[in-house]
C-alpha cells in the first residue's frame, strides 16, 4: 500500500525533473533559432561586405596597375 | 544540500524567461525543432505486480501482446522495405562454369542473412497464430462460465480485446505485405546455392535446412497463407466464434463511441471488421456460423459502416479493399452485404477538397481559441498566480479537441491517398506515350488535379502548422495537464467512489472488493495515509462521525500500468452484463463509472502530449512507394513523381494564378521530415533514410532554383509594368485581356525571411540562398542587357537604358526582402567600369565604337530634326559586332505582353539616332564620364582633317578653274547653272568625289554630335541650377549673382534647426562644404561649350594649311573675286556638285547620301578660315539662287529646278550652321577698312 503512495511521490519528482528538462530543451531550441537568425543576418552583412571589399580591391588594383605602367614607361 | 541545488537549478530555469531571443522569421514550416525531448515512458506493464489487483495476469498477457506487436512492427518494416537481393546476384549460367563453386558460396553468404530474417518472420507468424488460439480459448471459456471455467478471477477487459484487434490487424497486414513482395526469388536462389553446397555445409556443422527451406518456400509462395492458416486453425478452439463476435462488437462500440484517436487506430478498427467476419464465416455451408445469416451479430451493421470505407490505407503506398476479405467468405451473399456507395459519392467522401471548407473553419476557430487560452495562461503565470481548475479543465478539453481535429485531417489525407491508389488516372497525358506511363504516375502524379494539389497543400499546412503551435506550448501544458489528470482521477477515486463503496458495503455487494482495490491502487492520499472515512465502513457522515475529505493536488499523472489496470477494473464492473456484476450497481453508478471510463481513455494521449501530436500528424506514408517500386521493378522514382515535390513544384509553377499559396511551399517538404523519421525510427532502415536524404538534396536544390526563378520573374514583371509609361499602359491594357498589364502583388516576403528552415535536422538559411542567387541573377541580367547593346547599333542605347532602369527598379524592390550589393557596384562590375583611373567600360567603349564606326561614317544628319538616319548607301566598312545573345524572356521584361509593349516603345527610336539616344548615354554613363566619347570624337575629326580632308583639298584646289567670275544675271538661271557646270567639270567629274564628300560628312557628323551633346549638357546644367537656386537665393526676379552670404545663412538656419533637436558637431563644416560645392557647380554652369572646344581644336589642326587654303594674296588687296584658289571657292564648287542630281547610273544624289553633315564639316572649315562672309557673297549655288530669285522668268527645266531647290535647302542649313558657329566660337572681329569706290566702271568690264 505504502508503495503506491511512495510511487506517487517518486513520480512527482520525476515529472518535475522531466518538465524542467523540457523547459531547458525549449529554451535551447529558442536560443538555437534566435542565434541562427542573428548569425544569418550577420552572415548577410559579412558577405555583402566581403563582396564590396572584393570590388573595392578590384578598383584599387586599377590604380596600382597604372602606377606600375607609369613606372615601366 | 540536494534540495538547495535543486532549488538553484530551478531558479536558473526560471531565469530563461528573462532572455530576449529575437527571431523575426515568420513561421511557415512544420513542427521541427533542433532538439526534441520525448518524455513518454512505457514500462510495458513491468510494474503490474506492484498494484495488487485481479488483473495482474491479464496485464501480463497484454505485456506479451505489446511485445509481439513491437516485434511485428519490425517484421512489417522488414517486408515493406524488402528489396530483392537476387536481382543483383550473378547467376550460374552453365553447369561447367569455372567459378561455379565460388558463385554459389558467395550467393549463399549474401543471401543467408536475408533468408534468416524471413525464417524469423515465419516462426513469428506461427507463434502469433498459436498465441491467438490460446487467447481465444481463454476468452471463449470466460464467456461461457465466467471465473469458474477459466480459473480466472475476473473477465477480460476491453483493453485486452483491443490488443487482440491490433494483433489480428498485424497478421492481416503481414499477409498483404508478403503477397506483394517477391521474397520468393531470393529464396529460390538461396535454395539452389544451398542444394549445391549442402554437403560441405553439413560437414562444417550446419544442420540440414532442406525441409525448412521447402516449408519456407510454401509460406512465401502461397498467397494469403497467414490469414488462411489462422482461419483453418481457429475451429480447433471451441466456441471461437463468440470471441470473434466479441471483437466485432468491440470494434463497433469503439467506432460509435469515437474511442480512437490516431488515424492508424481508426483504420485498424475498420480493417479488422472485414477480417473478423472472414474468420467467422465457416467454409462449410452447413455450419451454423454463416456470417451472412447468423444471429450472433448483425452483419448489416458492419456492411453499412464499411459502405463509406470500401478503401482503407493499409501500409505505406498500399491500400486495402474492405471487400477483399468479405468476398473471400465461402458464404458471401451479395444480397445481404450491402455494396459500397456509388463511386461519385465515394469520390466526394474521400477527396478532401469537399471537406476543405469544414477543415478551414474548424482549424481557424480552434487556432484562435487555443492561442487565446495559451496567452491567458501565460499572463496568469507571469503574474505569479495559479491557473484555476476551471481553466485547466477548459484547456484539457481544448487539447483533446485539437488532437481530434488534427487526427481527422490526417486520416482524411491518408484515406484520400488510399482512394487515389485504388482509382488510378485512366487517360494518358498528351505529351506522353501510354506505354511509358508507369502505374505510380497514374496513382499520384496525374491523379491529383490542380485544385486537389492546392487543397492537399493547404490541409498539410494546417496539420503541420497547428501541431507546431501546440507543440510550442508543450512545457507550459505538460505541467498543467499532469496536475489536471491527477486531480480528476483522485476526485474520482477518493470522492466519487465513496458513494459506491458506501452502497456496496451497506448492501454487502460483491463489487466492494473491486472498489476497494481501485482505491488502494490508484488513490494518492493526503500525506500518504488513507483517512478513516466512515462511509467506507458503510456509515453515514454525521456529527458523531465527522469526516472532511481532503484531496491532494500533484503534478504527476498515473503510471501507464496504473491507469490501464484501473480502467480494466472499471470496465469489468459496468460492462458486466455478461459477468453478472452490473446488477449490483444503481443506474447512476453505472453512468458515473462509464463516464470516467470514457474520459480516462484519453488520459494516456494527453499525458504523452508530444507523442500523440506526432501520431496524429504523421504523414510520412505519403512519401513511401515501396509497393509501386516493386511493381515497376524500379530502384527509385524521379522527383517529378514524388508527391512532396509535385506539391511544392505546383505552387511555384502556378505562382501567377495563385500567388497566395507560395507561403505554403515549405509545408510539403515537411513530408520528408516525417518520412525520414519513419525510416529511422519505425522502419529502421538506413538505406531508406539515404534515399529520403538523396531526394531531399535534389528537391531542395530544385526548390531554391525554382523559387529564385519565380521570384526573379515576379519582380521583373512588377518592375517592368511599374516603369511602363502610365498613360501608355492604360491604353494598351484596354486593348488586352483584363489583368495582362496589372502589377502583380508580392507574396514572397514571408518565404524570403526564412532564415532557418529545418529539413532532415539541418537548418537551412533560405534567405541567404535566395539572396546569393538574386545577386547573381541581377548581374546576369545587366550582362545580358549590355551584351545585347554590344550586338546592336547605337540606337539600342535606349533599350539599354530601359533595361538598366528596370534592373535598378528590381533591385529596389528586392532590397526590401533580400540583401543585395549596391546597384552601382553591380552595374560597374558588369560593365567593367569600376576602374578608378579611367572611365572606360563596356558601355562607353561600345558607344564610342558605334559613334565612330557607324553613326559618323554611315548616317545622314538632319539639322532640322537633329537626328541621324541611316544613309541608303554605306561608305564606311561593315560594322562587326558581337553576336546577339539569346536572352530568356524572363531577363527582358518578364512576359510576352510586356516584351511586346516595350518593343513597340523601342521601335520609335530604332530607326534614327538623336537627342533621346544621347540623353540615354548621359543617363547611363553620367555626364562626368563622357571624356572618352569626347576625346575619341575630337581625335576622329583631327584624323579626318589631317588624313582625308587636307590631302583632298590640296588635290582639288589644283582642279579648280583659274577663273570663276560669277556670270551675269542676264544669262538667266539655266545659263548660270550651265556655266558653273562647265567650269567646274574637273571637280564634278572627279573620280574620288564621293570620298571627298565622305571626309567632310565625317567631320560634320562629329561636329553635329557635339552640338547635340552641348545642348544636353546645358539642359543638365540648367536642371542642376534650378535645384540649386533656392540655396543661393536666385529667382527670376532677383538679379542673380552668386551669393555666398545667403547660402551660408540658409545652411546655418538648417543647422541650428538640426542642432536644436540633435546635439551634434557633425554639421559644423556643412556651410563651408556647401559653398565649395556651389563653386564647383558655378564653374560648370558657365562652362564653355564642347563645340567651342572642338572648333578651337580644329582651328589648331587647320593652322598648318592656313596659307595654302588662303590662296595667293588678291591683286586688289581686298578680295580675289575672279580667281578660285581659296578654300571657300573650292567649298563652293563641292557644294555645287553636292546639289546636283544623281549622275551617271548612280541611284542617289550626293545630298541623299551624305546629309547635312557634309555642310557642317565644310562650312566649319570655311568659317575657321575666316572666309564665311566671302563664301556667302560669292558662292556658286547661292549665285544661281540669287539669279533665279531676281529674274522674272523662273527657270522651269527639271535639272535647274532640282539644283535650285537643293541649293535653297543647303543655304538654309548653312545659315543655321554659321549662326551656331558664330555663337559658339566667335572669331576676332576684323577691323573695318575704308575703301573708296572706284572712280569709274572700267574695272567691272575688265
Topology, element by element:
The complex is a heterodimer of chains A (73) and B (1246).
Chain A: H1 2-72
Chain B: H1 2-15, H2 56-80, H3 100-145, H4 147-150, H5 158-180, H6 183-203, H7 210-221, H8 225-233, H9 240-257, H10 263-280, H11 299-307, E1 311-315, E2 318-321, H12 322-328, H13 343-350, H14 356-382, H15 389-422, H16 439-445, H17 450-472, H18 474-506, H19 512-522, H20 560-574, H21 587-601, H22 603-607, H23 609-617, H24 626-632, H25 643-653, H26 670-682, H27 686-723, H28 726-735, H29 749-752, E3 757-759, E4 762-764, H30 766-790, H31 797-815, H32 823-830, H33 842-858, E5 859-862, E6 867-870, H34 896-910, E7 912-914, H35 915-925, H36 931-959, H37 972-983, H38 985-988, H39 993-1028, H40 1044-1061, H41 1070-1085, H42 1090-1102, H43 1106-1110, H44 1127-1139, H45 1150-1168, H46 1172-1178, H47 1180-1190, H48 1198-1224
Antiparallel strand pairs in B: 1-2, 3-4, 5-6, 6-7
Helix pairs in contact in B: 2-3, 2-5, 3-6, 3-9, 5-9, 5-10, 6-7, 9-10, 10-12, 10-15, 14-15, 14-17, 15-17, 15-18, 15-23, 17-23, 17-25, 18-19, 18-21, 19-20, 20-21, 25-27, 26-27, 27-30, 27-31, 30-31, 30-32, 31-35, 33-36, 33-39, 36-39, 36-42, 37-47, 39-41, 39-42, 39-45, 40-41, 44-45, 44-46, 45-48, ...
Structure description:
The complex is a heterodimer of chains A (73) and B (1246). Chain A is mainly alpha-helical and 73 residues long. Chain A has one helix spanning 2-72. The radius of gyration of chain A is 31 Å and the shape is rod-shaped. The termini of chain A are far apart. The relative contact order of chain A is 0.05. By secondary structure, chain B is mainly alpha-helical. Chain B has six domains: 57-237; 239-309 and 323-334, no CATH class; 485-611, no CATH class; 685-928, no CATH class; 931-1018 and 1099-1228, no CATH class; 1028-1085, no CATH class. Helix content of chain B is 63%, strand content 2%. In chain B, strands 5-6-7 form a three-stranded antiparallel beta sheet. In chain B, strands 1-2 form a two-stranded antiparallel ribbon. In chain B, helix 33 runs parallel beside helix 36. The radius of gyration of chain B is 50 Å and the shape is elongated. Chain B starts with a helix and ends in a 22-residue tail after the last helix. Chain A: One of its GO terms (biological process) is actin filament organization.
Amino acid at each position: 500500500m505504502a508503495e503506491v503512495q511512495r510511487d506517487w511521490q517518486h513520480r512527482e519528482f520525476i515529472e518535475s525533473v522531466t518538465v524542467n528538462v523540457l523547459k531547458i530543451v525549449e529554451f535551447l531550441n529558442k536560443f538555437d533559432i534566435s542565434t541562427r537568425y542573428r548569425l544569418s543576418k550577420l552572415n548577410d552583412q559579412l558577405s555583402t561586405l566581403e563582396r564590396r571589399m572584393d570590388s573595392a580591391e578590384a578598383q584599387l588594383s586599377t590604380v596600382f596597375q597604372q602606377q606600375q605602367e607609369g613606372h615601366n614607361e | 544540500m540536494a534540495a538547495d541545488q535543486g532549488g538553484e537549478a530551478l531558479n536558473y530555469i526560471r531565469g530563461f524567461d528573462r532572455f530576449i531571443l529575437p527571431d523575426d522569421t515568420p513561421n511557415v514550416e512544420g513542427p521541427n525543432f533542433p532538439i526534441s525531448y520525448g518524455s513518454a515512458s512505457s514500462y510495458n506493464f513491468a510494474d503490474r505486480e506492484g498494484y495488487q489487483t485481479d488483473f495482474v495476469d491479464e496485464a501480463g498477457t497484454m505485456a506479451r501482446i505489446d511485445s509481439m506487436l513491437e516485434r511485428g512492427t519490425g517484421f512489417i518494416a522488414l517486408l515493406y522495405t524488402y528489396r530483392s537481393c537476387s536481382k543483383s546476384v550473378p547467376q550460374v549460367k552453365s553447369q561447367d562454369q569455372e567459378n561455379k563453386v565460388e558463385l554459389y558460396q558467395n550467393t549463399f553468404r549474401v543471401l543467408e542473412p536475408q533468408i534468416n530474417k524471413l525464417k524469423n518472420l515465419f516462426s513469428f507468424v506461427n507463434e502469433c497464430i498459436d498465441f491467438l488460439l490460446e487467447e481465444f480459448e481463454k476468452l471463449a471459456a470466460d464467456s461461457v462460465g465466467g471465473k469458474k471455467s477459466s480459473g480466472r478471477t475476473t473477465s477480460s477487459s476491453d483493453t485486452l480485446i483491443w490488443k487482440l484487434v491490433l494483433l489480428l490487424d498485424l497478421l492481416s497486414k503481414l499477409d498483404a505485405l508478403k503477397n506483394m513482395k517477391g521474397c520468393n526469388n531470393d529464396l529460390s536462389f538461396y535454395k539452389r546455392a544451398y542444394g549445391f553446397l549442402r554437403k560441405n555445409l553439413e560437414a562444417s556443422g550446419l544442420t540440414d535446412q532442406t525441409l525448412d527451406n521447402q516449408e519456407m518456400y510454401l509460406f512465401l509462395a502461397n498467397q494469403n497463407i497467414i490469414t488462411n492458416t489462422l482461419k483453418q486453425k481457429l475451429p480447433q478452439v471451441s466456441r471461437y466464434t463468440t470471441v470473434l463476435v466479441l471483437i466485432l462488437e468491440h470494434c463497433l462500440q469503439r467506432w460509435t463511441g469515437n474511442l480512437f484517436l490516431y488515424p492508424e487506430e481508426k483504420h485498424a478498427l475498420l480493417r479488422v471488421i472485414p477480417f473478423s467476419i472472414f474468420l467467422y464465416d465457416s467454409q462449410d455451408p452447413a455450419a451454423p456460423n454463416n456470417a451472412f445469416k447468423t444471429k450472433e451479430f448483425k452483419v448489416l451493421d458492419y456492411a453499412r459502416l464499411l459502405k463509406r470505407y470500401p478503401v482503407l490505407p493499409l501500409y505505406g503506398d498500399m491500400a486495402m479493399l474492405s471487400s477483399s476479405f468479405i468476398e473471400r467468405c465461402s458464404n458471401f451473399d451479395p444480397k445481404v452485404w450491402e455494396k459500397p456507395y456509388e463511386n461519385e459519392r465515394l469520390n466526394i467522401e474521400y477527396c478532401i477538397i469537399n471537406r476543405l471548407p469544414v477543415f478551414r473553419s474548424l482549424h481557424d476557430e480552434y487556432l484562435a481559441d487555443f492561442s487565446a487560452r495559451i496567452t491567458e495562461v501565460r499572463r496568469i503565470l507571469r503574474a505569479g498566480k495559479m491557473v484555476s481548475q476551471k481553466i485547466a479543465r477548459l484547456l484539457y478539453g481544448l487539447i483533446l479537441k485539437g488532437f481530434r481535429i488534427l487526427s481527422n485531417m490526417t486520416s482524411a489525407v491518408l484515406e484520400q491517398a488510399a482512394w487515389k491508389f485504388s482509382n488510378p488516372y485512366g487517360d494518358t497525358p498528351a505529351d506522353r506515350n501510354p506505354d511509358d506511363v508507369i502505374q505510380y504516375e497514374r496513382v499520384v502524379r496525374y491523379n491529383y488535379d490542380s485544385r486537389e494539389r492546392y487543397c492537399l497543400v493547404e490541409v498539410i499546412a494546417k496539420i503541420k502548422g497547428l501541431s507546431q503551435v501546440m507543440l510550442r506550448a508543450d512545457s507550459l501544458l505538460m505541467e498543467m495537464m499532469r496536475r489536471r489528470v491527477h486531480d480528476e482521477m483522485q476526485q474520482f477515486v477518493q470522492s466519487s467512489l465513496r458513494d459506491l463503496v458506501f452502497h456496496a458495503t451497506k448492501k454487502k455487494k460483491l463489487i466492494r472488493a473491486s472498489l476497494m482495490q481501485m482505491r488502494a491502487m490508484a488513490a494518492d492520499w493526503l500525506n500518504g495515509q488513507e483517512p478513516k472515512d466512515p462511509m467506507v465502513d458503510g456509515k453515514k457522515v454525521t456529527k458523531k462521525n465527522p469526516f472532511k475529505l481532503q484531496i491532494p493536488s500533484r503534478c504527476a499523472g498515473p503510471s501507464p500500468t496504473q491507469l490501464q489496470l484501473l480502467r480494466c477494473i472499471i470496465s469489468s464492473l459496468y460492462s458486466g452484463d455478461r459477468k453478472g456484476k452490473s446488477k449490483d450497481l444503481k443506474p447512476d453508478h453505472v453512468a458515473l463509472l462509464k463516464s470516467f471510463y470514457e474520459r480516462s481513455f484519453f488520459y494516456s494521449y494527453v499525458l504523452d502530449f508530444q507523442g500523440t501530436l506526432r501520431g496524429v500528424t504523421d504523414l510520412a506514408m505519403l512519401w513511401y512507394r515501396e509497393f509501386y517500386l516493386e511493381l515497376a521493378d524500379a530502384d527509385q522514382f524521379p522527383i517529378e513523381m514524388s508527391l512532396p515535390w509535385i506539391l511544392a513544384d505546383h505552387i511555384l509553377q502556378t505562382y501567377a494564378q495563385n500567388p497566395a499559396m507560395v507561403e505554403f511551399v515549405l509545408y510539403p517538404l515537411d513530408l520528408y521530415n516525417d518520412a525520414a523519421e519513419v525510416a529511422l525510427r519505425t522502419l529502421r532502415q538506413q538505406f531508406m533514410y539515404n534515399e529520403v536524404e538523396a531526394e531531399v538534396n535534389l528537391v531542395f536544390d530544385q526548390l531554391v532554383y525554382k523559387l529564385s526563378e519565380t521570384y526573379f520573374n515576379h519582380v521583373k514583371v512588377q518592375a517592368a509594368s511599374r516603369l511602363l509609361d502610365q498613360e501608355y499602359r492604360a491604353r494598351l491594357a484596354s486593348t488586352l485581356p483584363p489583368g495582362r498589364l496589372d502589377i502583380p502583388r508580392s507574396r514572397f516576403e514571408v518565404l524570403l525571411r526564412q532564415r532557418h528552415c529545418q529539413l532532415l535536422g539541418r537548418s537551412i538559411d533560405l534567405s541567404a540562398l535566395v539572396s546569393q542567387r538574386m545577386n547573381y541573377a541581377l548581374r546576369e541580367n545587366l550582362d545580358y542587357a549590355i551584351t545585347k547593346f554590344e550586338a546592336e547599333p547605337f540606337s539600342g542605347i535606349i533599350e539599354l537604358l530601359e533595361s538598366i532602369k528596370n534592373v535598378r527598379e528590381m533591385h529596389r524592390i528586392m532590397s526590401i526582402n533580400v540583401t543585395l550589393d549596391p546597384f552601382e557596384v553591380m552595374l560597374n562590375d558588369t560593365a567593367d567600369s569600376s576602374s578608378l583611373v579611367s572611365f572606360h567600360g563596356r558601355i562607353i567603349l561600345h558607344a564610342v565604337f558605334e559613334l565612330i564606326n557607324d553613326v559618323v561614317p554611315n548616317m545622314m544628319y538632319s539639322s532640322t530634326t537633329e537626328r541621324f538616319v541611316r544613309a541608303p548607301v554605306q561608305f564606311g566598312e561593315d560594322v562587326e559586332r558581337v553576336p546577339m545573345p539569346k536572352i530568356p524572356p524572363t531577363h527582358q521584361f518578364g512576359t510576352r505582353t510586356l516584351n511586346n509593349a516595350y518593343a513597340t516603345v523601342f521601335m520609335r527610336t530604332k530607326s534614327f539616332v538623336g537627342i533621346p539616344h544621347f540623353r540615354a548615354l548621359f543617363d547611363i554613363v553620367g555626364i562626368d564620364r563622357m571624356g572618352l566619347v569626347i576625346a575619341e570624337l575630337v581625335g576622329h575629326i583631327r584624323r579626318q582633317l589631317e588624313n582625308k580632308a587636307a590631302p583632298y583639298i590640296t588635290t582639288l584646289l589644283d582642279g579648280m578653274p583659274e577663273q570663276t567670275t560669277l556670270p551675269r544675271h542676264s544669262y538667266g538661271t539655266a545659263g548660270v547653272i550651265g556655266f558653273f557646270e562647265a567650269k567646274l567639270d574637273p571637280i564634278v567629274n572627279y573620280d574620288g568625289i564621293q570620298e571627298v564628300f565622305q571626309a567632310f560628312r565625317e567631320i560634320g557628323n562629329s561636329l553635329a554630335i557635339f552640338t547635340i551633346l552641348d545642348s544636353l549638357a546645358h539642359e543638365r546644367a540648367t536642371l542642376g541650377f534650378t535645384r540649386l537656386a533656392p540655396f543661393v537665393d536666385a529667382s527670376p526676379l532677383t538679379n542673380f549673382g552668386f551669393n555666398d552670404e545667403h547660402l551660408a545663412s540658409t545652411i546655418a538656419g538648417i543647422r541650428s534647426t538640426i542642432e536644436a533637436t540633435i546635439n551634434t558637431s557633425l554639421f559644423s563644416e556643412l556651410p563651408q562644404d556647401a559653398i565649395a560645392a556651389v563653386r564647383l557647380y558655378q564653374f560648370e554652369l558657365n562652362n564653355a561649350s564642347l563645340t567651342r572646344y572642338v572648333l578651337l581644336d580644329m582651328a589648331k589642326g587647320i593652322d598648318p594649311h592656313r596659307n595654302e587654303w588662303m590662296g595667293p594674296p588678291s591683286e586688289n588687296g581686298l578680295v580675289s573675286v575672279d580667281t578660285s584658289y581659296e578654300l571657300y571657292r573650292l567649298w563652293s564648287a563641292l557644294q555645287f556638285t553636292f546639289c546636283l542630281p544623281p549622275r551617271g547610273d548612280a541611284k542617289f544624289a550626293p545630298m541623299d547620301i551624305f546629309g547635312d553633315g557634309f555642310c557642317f564639316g565644310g562650312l566649319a572649315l570655311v568659317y575657321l578660315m575666316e572666309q564665311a562672309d566671302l563664301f556667302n557673297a560669292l558662292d556658286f549655288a547661292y549665285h544661281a539662287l540669287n539669279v533665279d530669285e531676281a529674274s522674272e522668268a523662273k527657270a522651269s527645266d527639271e535639272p535647274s529646278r532640282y539644283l535650285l531647290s537643293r541649293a535653297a535647302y543647303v543655304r538654309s542649313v548653312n545659315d543655321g550652321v554659321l549662326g551656331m558657329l558664330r555663337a559658339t566660337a566667335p572669331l576676332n572681329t576684323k577691323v573695318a577698312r575704308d575703301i573708296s569706290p572706284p572712280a569709274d566702271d572700267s574695272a567691272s568690264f575688265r
